[in-house]
Specification:
254 residues, alpha/beta, Rossmann fold, 6-stranded mixed beta sheet, 4-stranded antiparallel beta sheet, 10 strands
Length: 254
Amino acid sequence: MAKTITITDSLVPNPAPQSTIIRLENIFKIYGSGETEVKALNDVNLTIYEGEYCSIMGPSGSGKSTAMNIIGCLDRPTAGQYYLDNVDVAQMDDAELAKIRNIKLGFVFQQFHLLPQLTALENVILPMVYASINPTERRDRAAAALKKVGLENRLNNKPNQLSGGQQQRVAIARAIVNRPVVLLADEPTGALDSRTTQEVLDIFGELNASGITVVMVTHEPEVARQTQRIVWFRDGEVIHTNLTPTDLTQLAMS
């Protein structure tokens, strides 16, 4: 007899949230036209609440990276509405999107994207320059962010003087220094070993516990299981919106 796999995402209630931070409504992303048309996202609806720690998963080509690019205001949907902190940003122009990205969003990537000629402190200061924050406050906030990720003794080190895990910590500090409403992480542990991966995930957990909303794209089940909620994409659609770590194990076995 075949084993029955029960996925309970539709039965698991969301915690009572203070507010909605991210809301995708009927989002389509289409590349090409006619015979070459590809629907990277097909009528995607997704809500993420303030203070959540959410991971996005799915096989290659599932649409998860396209969704992250739209959530991160790095791309626009072909159709649909995207509300970020209750503002519809779906059709904003490039200048408006750049401002939104710098003020409301923090980014952490698999490759750390630190400027090699700058120190850790200077790398973290950089987003505040674009936000027109005064120089004294920039330095104080950058130092505080680096202390938050355990690098208070590495302020003047350049990236080549830091380990991979330390470089990712600098990237996290840079992502949170402008006090974003959402921290977006795209495969943030993909370039790290298992011990360093756990250290970085511990930082994400601490940041979330302090009230920061965290959304992470990952292909690693062991990483996703440390988040509160798992969203599963397939063929450009959201198949499951509220998987638990146990559900993810069952899905992998099905």
